[in-house]
Design brief:
With 40 residues, this protein is mostly helical. The termini are far apart.
């Protein structure tokens, strides 16, 4: 069984504990179909 293929590589530099769905994080991840609730 093959694993999932990488669709995109998104690099973000964030302060610890400060990830929120607000810009610029939300739009950067949302355009790649990443669920904000799972990420934040």
């Amino acid at each position: 069984m093959a694993g999932k293929k990488i669709k995109a590589l998104v690099k973000l530099q964030l302060a610890a504990g400060k990830a929120t769905p607000a810009p610029p994080i939300g739009p950067a991840l949302g355009q790649h179909g990443i669920n904000m609730q799972d990420f934040c």
